[in-house]
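Predict structure. Chain length: 115.
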Amino acid sequence: QVQLVDSGGGLVQPGGSLRLSCAATGIIVSRYIMGWYRQAPGKQRELVATITTGGTTNYVDFVKGRFTISRDNAKNTVLLQMSSLKPEDTAVYYCNARNLFSNYWGQGTQVTISS
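Prediction complete.
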């Protein structure tokens, strides 16, 4: 019933840009805290960015000024615009939806930054 479909990953060069999408069904994204997380090989999953129901955004320090999280309410989709990409951004990126009672995850999309 609830599904988050992550897409947009791929291979880009350092300094390049990429846009990730999270298409939601079964929930209304504007009613959840939406987030992007990432997990690199040998590392734990870590928070990248969130957007609240009120539209307030939050970023971890290492992506501030480079990544932008946003919602397209008409399309019920959450986006992560990534720029000035670095090799250390390489990871599987996961969309997440949370409220007081629910926690949903997308399947992940691979982002690889390499020359």
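Summary: The first strand starts at residue 3 and ends at 7.
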